[in-house]
Design a protein that fits this description.
Blueprint (H helix, E strand, L loop, with lengths): L2 H11 L6 H10 L4 H22 L4 H19 L12 E6 L7 H12 L3 E4 L6 H11 L3 E5 L7 H12 L7 E5 L5 H7 L3 E2 L3 H14 L1
Length: about 210
């Protein structure tokens, strides 16, 4: 792995807000693609932060700060990505479920979906199932991405999936879940349609669903 990518990982893991833009710019100047910076630099850096949180060496404030570090870098990366034909592949509703305020992973997925030709409807964080259902019915979106970082908040995902089933929309609406606490096993338990381990994986999954629609 290139040293410049490792430096990006370290900057996120060590919460170096003032250094991240320069390090990302160095990667871009070396010819490293925006997607590679996201996948092997930013995503891995966030994984390291998550590991520290699970180990008890980082706390909620540190997670928020890591998100701010990534936010600082994202406009620079986004400016180097090829814009897609917005909306040509359909609509995707994104939300961090009720009780969870973490958004950086969701925001990265949203950015990638946007440049890959999807119309992204981002409902934000701490979103109750009722609001997600209202958005599905109002927009006609057939793709939904739900994010949860904390294990204690995964019940919010089940609430949305149960609501979709109760409304008789399970065959029409595909629900993709992701986040630090999510796994393939949890996907099966929750009854979701797919699990995206990384932001890149999530975009591939949504792409596959849009082609099958």
């Amino acid at each position: 792995m290139k040293e410049s990518i490792i430096e990006v990982q370290k900057a996120i893991n060590e919460l170096l807000l003032d250094e991240i833009k320069g390090l990302v710019q160095a990667c871009l100047d070396e010819g490293i693609s925006p997607l590679e910076i996201i996948e092997t630099g930013i995503s891995k850096g966030l994984d390291l932060v998550g590991e520290q949180f699970e180990a008890g060496t980082y706390f909620l404030g540190d997670l928020v700060m890591a998100g701010e570090v990534v936010k600082e870098a994202m406009p620079l990366i986004e400016s180097r990505m090829d814009p897609g034909a917005a909306g040509q592949k359909g609509k995707v509703i994104l939300a961090t479920v009720h009780g969870d305020i973490h958004e950086i992973g969701k925001n990265i997925v949203g950015m990638l979906l946007n440049v890959n030709g999807f119309e992204v409807i981002d409902l934000g964080v701490d979103v109750p199932a009722e609001k997600i259902m209202a958005a599905i019915q109002e927009t006609g979106a057939r793709l939904v991405g739900l994010s949860a970082l904390l294990t204690t908040m995964v019940g919010g995902i089940k609430e949305v999936i149960d609501s979709v089933m109760e409304a008789g929309l399970k065959d029409r609406v595909k629900i993709v879940i992701g986040g630090a606490c999510i796994s393939e096993k949890l996907k099966e338990e929750m009854g979701a349609d797919a699990y995206g381990e990384t932001a890149i994986d999530a975009v591939k999954i949504f792409d596959g669903f849009s082609k099958a629609a």
